[in-house]
Structure formats: C-alpha cells, structure tokens
From TrEMBL:
GO terms for molecular function: RNA binding. It comes from Roridomyces roridus. Residues 206-319 form the PAZ domain. It comes from the Eukaryota. InterPro entries: ArgoL1, Argonaute_Mid_dom, Argonaute_N, PAZ_dom, PAZ_dom_sf, Piwi, RNaseH-like_sf, RNaseH_sf. This is Argonaute-like protein.
Length: 842
C-alpha cells in the first residue's frame, strides 16, 4: 500500500489578513404601501437595499451594510431602529407616488460578530456565533460582484463570455463560483469557473419563434390557448422581464400570453372610449403592427383593475435572466461541453482572468466591503501536499490488467464471471427505421462482443415487432413465447430516437409489474454504434444477469474479506425549486464476498428532505437479503453517503447513523443472532465542493493536463477543521475532456479501521475501479455511484397510468394545497422480486 508524496496546486486562496472589524446584526422587513405581505422578489430586495444605502440614506448607511438577500443586515456602525422609505425605481418620486417601499430595521438579539469568531471557526468550533461568522464571510466576498451581476448567491455571471444553445433560446454564461472554506489554521477562499443558463435576450417575437424552432411567422398566429405550441410558448415566456417599445423606461413582467389576433383585441381608454390594439398603436404612437394576427403579452397581474395586453412584436426580452429549470435534453450535452475547460486554462481564468473576463481574485483588493472588514486575500493559488496511491490491478477471467491514467482496455480479456446468454429475445419498437436486416446486424454485433468477453451466447429465440401504444402487452407476449418471465434472461428493446414515454413504460412494466430484465438500445445510438458501444452493452448485460465483470486486486478488500462484509451506497435526489414532487432515496448494497455485486432499494419521501426517512427499514431489508444468501450476518458495514452538504454532517451523524443501528438491532432481535453486531463505518462523499487540483509542473500531469488518477490530498491546510484527522480529497479518475473533479471524503464514524485513513483511501480508490459498465475508474466509489443511478430511475417506479411524472412540471398537492405523499406512494411500485435481485439500475 505504498504511496509517493506529491505537491499540487489548488484553486484556493489564503485570507492573508482576517477581518478585524466587529459587525452588528439587524433584522429587516419590507412593507409595500399598505400591503405588509407583498414581499419583493430577491433580486428586487437587493436593488431596494442598494438604493436605500446609496440614494435614500447615504449618510446613515456609511459604511454600507452587508445584506443577505433575506432578512439580515450586517453593519459596522450602529443604526437607529426604525422605518426607512425607498422607492422602487426613482428616488425623486413624490411621496404619494406608487412604488414606495418601507424597510423596518431593528437590531437583533443575537450577539455581535467579532474577529475571534472567525478564529474559532478555523479551530472547528461549530455554534450559532461561528456559523453566523461563516455566513458573514461568504457575504463579504460575494457582495460586490453580486450587486453588479446576475447571480445565484455563491456564483455570479458577468455575461462577458457566453455561448448560445442551438435550437433553444437559451444562452450559457461563464461565471465564477466563490466559497469561504475554514481549514485547520487558516481561512481559504475557493474560486472556480462555473456555467449558468440564461434566457436569450432580444425581440420577444424572435424568441417565441425560437421556442417553437420555427422560421414561419404564422406559427405565432395562434388562436387556441390549449394548443401544445401555445402552452409551450406561454411556459417559456411567463415571468420574463421585458421592455415595451413605447414605454422603454419601465420594466414589465410577462404574466401570461393570450391568443391572437392581438391587433383586434379591444380595450377601454382613460377617456372611456373603446378601441382595438392595432388602431390604438397607429393613432397614439404612429406604429403600424407588422403582425396583428399574432399572440399578445399580458403585463398585469390577476388582481389588476384591467388587463393590459401588449403586442408581442413590440416587446423585448431583457438580458441577465437566469434559466432555473432543467435544461432540455438537446441542451444538456452542449452545456457539458461548454463547461469543460483544460486544467491550465481553468487555473489561469481563476487566478488572473482572461481577455475581458476579470477574475474575482484580482478584484478583492478593490472591494469596499472587504476593505471595511480589514480583510485581505492573497492572489496566488496555494500549493498543497498530496500523495499518489498505488493503482490496483484488475482481475479478469483470463488475465490481470493494469490501468493507466484511469483507463484500461478489455480487448482480449474475458469477464471475471461471464454468464451464458441462452434464453433471450429482441423487441423492436421502431420497425420503420430499424428494419429486419438491420436488426439482424445489431444482434450479430452484440453477440460477437458478448462472445469475445467470454459469455456463451446463443441467438435470440424470439425477435418481434411492437408499437409504443401497448408496451405492457408486447412485453407479456414475448415473455410468454420465451417460457414466462421467470425463464427469460433479458429482452433487448430497440427504441426510436424520441422514445422517453416508451422507455419509461418498458422499465415500469419490466422492472415492477412483470419482472423481466430489459436492455434498451436507442436508434440514435445505434446509428453510430461500434465495437466499443456493443462492449459497453455487453458489460451491462452480464452484470444484470448476475455475472461479475471485473474484480479489483486490493489488499484492503482482501483483508476485509476475511470476515463477511457489506458495502453500501446511499443517495437522495430532489425535485427542482418550488416543485411539489417527492424526493427519491436509494440504498445500494453489496451481497457478495468481493464488494463487486450490488442490489438496490428505492423509496420516495417528502420533497427536498435530505435525511433518509426510511433508512432503518432499508438497512433491515439489505441485511436480511445478505443473510438469506450467505446463511450468516455481516461483521462489517461500510457506508458511503452521497448528496449532503457539510452543514448537514451533524444531522447525518445524529439521525441516520442511529437509523442504521435500529435496522441492525431489528435483525438481531428478530433472528436471535448470538454473535456480535456489525461494526459500522460511515463516509460522506461530496462532489459539489469545487476544490480542484492542478499539476504544479507540466510533466506531472496525464495526457489531458490533469493530475493523475490516484491523487489523495489530506493536507491539514485544506481539510475540514471539524474532522482534521478524517477528511481527504481523492481524485480517482482521469477526465476524458476538461478538468478532473475529486471526491471529498469525510469520515463521520469509523469502527473498522482504527483511524487508519490510508486504508480508507485505498478502499475508496479500489471501489472506483469496479463500476460494472465502464472500463475507466470513476469519480466516486461504485456503490454510491450506483445509488445515484438508482435515484435517477425513480421515475420508472411510477405507474404510467397514474398521470404522475417525476420529471414533468406537474404539481400535485393535497386538498389544503400541501404536498400529498400518499398520492405518489399509491403510484410508486416496488421492484419485482425477479428484477430486484439483479443490477437493473445500470
């Protein structure tokens, strides 16, 4: 287990001078006229607070306050409690004009934030004061750029560098992420390049045509509000900020759209006269509408005294509006490609900027907020000490393979435990494009790859066609032809290019109702399928049949194998903001003696609940499954937990670990087991920390310029001060393109390794090599990667007949407007016993 030391650079910068100023905390509450419950949106709140300090009361708020965007203000001076008035747009507006806000400010009962709170934060002390100090430090570094640019709190986007998505009116903007990170003995600021999606600015007419991917102006001459195109445009444009050609000094919000012809819509003028929109614009503004038959834009809310409708062609979508929904499938690949940057280019952009893009690191010295705080940030990326772990060899059926730079070739290798494929079928849902000669070619190529990997393969016994309107019937029929679902090994399903509903139905009826394994192949992938593609399919098929593709030659796994052990991965995925859909949780657990074969359990729970509510039952079920197979109980349980932030570590430790112990206790009590209960190790694996490592000298990296796979950094100057002896970064993979991302590992409990961090590092690295459908090491251990895959398949558990969809924008609530989990649970199906026993989630 020897490892070699190495020095690498990272995208973190030392706070060379800590804050020297004391801050007082104030509570703030906005009042709009006589409507105390009408709270401005976050962006407007920021704008109002800025106007309050720079325009309305510059002498009172000097130095300027730090605002958290919600209720809290932090000030170095004392301010009298009271109500301060500020206008939403123009401070010179008369007192009786509309648009005035009142901001009620009062000093909180909380203690002042003093410089010693920051010192305690670096010592790992977590309490209300140090957490508040951490929040203040984050606000200090973000306040200046966030006031100038669109942002999401920790990342801002200047718009200096961007790329348009093809076929969708969305632009990708490069930006900078900033995070304050206390470490052992010093405070760091991590800066990274990030990408955000924004609505494309421009004439609303052009944007609406882009939404429909149309060049025909008549496509916007819609009369039916129920038409799919009308609904699509309405969803995209709603709540967008616009300017109207005849009213350029005011920003308006698109509240809705109305069917055309907009020019014929009549309204009442202030003098009581009724006129049509087209006639009004010609008479009042000398504007002859070019598209009077198009849809119209509503810019007034539901409770307005009258509806204000503007012609689409006169509206302009304003820049800088963040697109917060999930990107359409056609935009995801482009976003990933745009996000990928060569390591050296990323480090240069973070440290110094490039062309018109200025790095925040170079702006810290000019920040009024940092200067008031007495805080100074070094502009040079720090160097940290790491080590290179020994890369483990991989055991195939006929030879040993040594990975190089995180990858290896399976040509000439037989799978470690190949399964024979003798009773299987092919079901073609795209007979129009994938005709019979091509189907036979697909079968031959797949069989050839399976055979070369050591799998004994007979030809499919049934090859049939079906349409997507009766997926359940098609699956049932082919299973009957093959001797019943219990006898069928797998069904290869050929899908058309746009087949998400068919695939969802195939997986639901196959996984949940019928109990048959399926492997879907999409027509777009088959068009360019080569040997590598079919090899990857063969790897998934073998694992789903219960075979083992590869084992890793790891001394730690060998040592663990002296006693029965289980490795588990746990993850939670959530719906988007303000969407009432359940969160999905998955527990994946090994059930062999080598840590290579896994099963999964998936549940749903309340939206955005991070802690797994049903963990005790899931652990109980996993232990019972292991016991039924091996006729013994495990002595060792190792959990890899994904998806929690550092602020949630105490909750995982105090809530989830007791649930694990509860599941163990129930098994021991029910089975009356005489031997000791298993020892538990819990490791949290983080992927969204933005800490990145770079070679300190050019020849230190791999062919892509990244640090080589196997880099571990547990330098105390970079690790979490709450867990100074149980915290490390592991870069276990090599990026094909762009910059490699390390996993951040924090050990919350360890009953098995006696504080030997290197053994945990070696184990984690080894488990990154057993991801069954890849011939590359992956970025996090396979069991937690599998848990992530199982969560993503949550939608396949929902009955297609239920009208519920975990991916759609449908909001399902109870009668009182709250979320009704029972509705979802009734539609959520458990895995069929015949498919549950396989690695169906690959």
């Amino acid at each position: 287990m020897a490892s070699s030391p190495i020095s690498v650079l990272t995208n973190s910068f030392v706070v060379s001078k800590l804050p020297t100023t004391t801050y007082h905390q104030y509570d703030s509450k906005f009042l709009f006229g006589d409507q105390p419950d009408k709270l401005p949106n976050p962006e407007k709140r920021q704008r109002l607070v800025q106007a309050l300090q720079t325009v309305a009361y510059p002498n009172v708020f000097n130095p300027p306050a730090i605002y958290d965007g919600g209720r809290l203000l932090y000030m170095t001076q004392f301010v009298n409690d009271g109500t301060y008035r500020v206008h939403g747009s123009n401070q010179s507006a008369p007192p009786d004009a509309r648009g005035w806000y009142s901001l009620r400010i009062s000093r909180t009962a909380g203690k002042d934030i003093v410089p010693t709170d920051v010192i305690e934060l670096m010592q790992g002390k977590v309490n209300d004061r140090t957490l508040t100090a951490a929040n203040l430090l984050q606000l200090l570094i973000c306040q200046a750029p966030n006031l100038r640019n669109p942002n999401n709190g920790r990342a801002y986007f200047s718009g200096e560098e961007k790329q348009s998505l093809r076929g969708i009116p969305i632009d990708l903007w490069r930006g900078f992420y900033q995070a304050v990170r206390p470490t052992v003995g010093r405070m760091l600021i991590t800066v990274d390049v990030t990408v955000g999606a924004f609505y494309r600015p421009g004439p609303a007419f052009d944007v609406a045509m882009d939404v429909l991917n149309s060049r025909n102006v008549r496509s916007l001459y819609m009369r039916d509000a129920q038409h799919a195109d009308f609904v699509k445009v309405a969803r995209f444009l709603k709540n967008r900020k616009i300017q109207v050609k005849t009213d350029k000094n005011r920003i308006k919000i698109i509240r809705a759209i109305v069917p055309g012809p907009v020019g014929a819509i009549k309204f009442t003028l202030d003098n009581g006269e009724t006129t049509a929109i087209q006639k009004h614009y010609l008479a009042a503004h000398n504007i002859r509408l070019q598209h009077p038959d198009s849809i119209g834009i509503v810019v007034t809310g539901k409770n307005a005294p009258r509806v204000d409708i503007r012609p689409l062609e006169l509206c302009f979508i304003l820049p800088g509006q963040r697109y917060k929904a999930k990107l359409p499938a056609e935009g995801t690949a482009a976003a990933v490609a745009y996000s990928a940057m060569k390591p050296a280019e990323r480090l240069q952009l973070v440290q110094s900027g490039k062309n018109a893009t200025v790095s925040p690191v170079q702006e810290y010295r000019n920040s009024e907020f940092l200067n008031v705080a007495g805080m100074v940030v070094d502009t040079h990326a720090i160097s940290v000490q790491g080590k290179m772990l020994r890369v483990p060899s991989l055991l195939y059926g006929n030879k040993k393979v040594d990975p190089r730079d995180g990858a290896w070739n399976v040509v000439g290798s037989h799978l470690h435990n190949p399964k024979a494929l003798t009773n299987w079928g092919v079901l073609n849902f795209d007979a129009g494009c994938i005709q019979q000669p091509r189907v036979q070619k697909i079968i031959q190529d797949l069989m050839q790859c399976c055979s070369q990997l050591g799998m004994g393969v007979d030809g499919p016994k049934v090859v049939s066609q079906a349409n997507g309107h009766d997926v359940r019937g098609a699956l049932k029929r082919i299973c009957d032809q093959l001797g019943g679902s219990a006898a069928v090994q797998i069904i290869i399903v050929l899908l058309p290019a746009n087949a998400d509903p068919i695939r969802t139905a195939v997986k639901y009826y196959g996984d949940i109702e019928i109990g048959v394994r399926t492997q879907c192949l999409r027509e777009t992938k088959l068009q360019r399928a080569n040997n590598q593609y079919y090899n990857n399919v063969a790897l998934k098929i073998n694992a789903r049949l219960g075979g083992v593709n590869v084992l890793v030659d790891s001394p730690v796994l060998t040592e663990l194998g002296k006693r029965p052990f289980m490795i588990m991965g746990l993850d939670t995925s959530h719906p988007g903001p303000n969407v009432a859909r359940p969160s999905v949780t998955s527990l994946v657990y090994s059930h062999d003696t080598k840590g290579a074969e896994y099963r999964a359990l998936t549940c749903i729970q309340e939206p955005r609940a991070e802690l797994v509510s049903d963990l005790a039952r899931m652990v109980y079920f996993a232990l019972m499954t292991f016991g039924d197979k091996h006729k013994t109980a495990p002595a060792i349980l190792i959990f890899y937990r994904d998806g929690v932030s550092e602020g949630e570590f105490p909750q995982v430790r105090d809530v989830e670990i007791p649930q694990i112990m509860e599941g163990i206790d129930k098994v021991w009590a029910e089975k009356k087991l005489p031997h000791s209960k298993p020892k538990v190790t819990m490791i949290v694996v983080g992927k969204r920390h933005h800490v990145t490592f770079f070679p300190s000298i050019p020849n230190q990296g791999d062919r892509t310029g990244n640090c080589r796979a196997g880099l571990v950094v547990d330098d105390k100057g970079l690790t979490n001060p709450q867990f100074p002896k149980a915290d490390f970064y592991l870069q276990s993979h090599s990026a094909i393109k762009g910059t490699s991302r390390s996993g951040h590992y924090t050990v919350l409990r360890d009953d098995n390794f006696n504080g030997n961090l290197e053994k945990l590092q070696q184990l984690s690295f080894a488990l990154c090599h057993v991801y069954a459908k890849a011939t590359r090491s992956v970025s996090i251990p396979a069991p937690v990667y599998y848990a992530d895959l199982a969560c993503a398949r949550g939608k396949f558990h929902i009955d297609p007949q239920s009208q519920l969809d975990l991916d759609s924008s449908t909001v399902v609530s109870g009668e009182d407007g709250g979320f009704d989990l029972d509705v979802w649970n009734k539609a959520f199906g458990e895995m069929h016993p015949q498919t549950r026993a396989s690695m169906y989630f690959l």
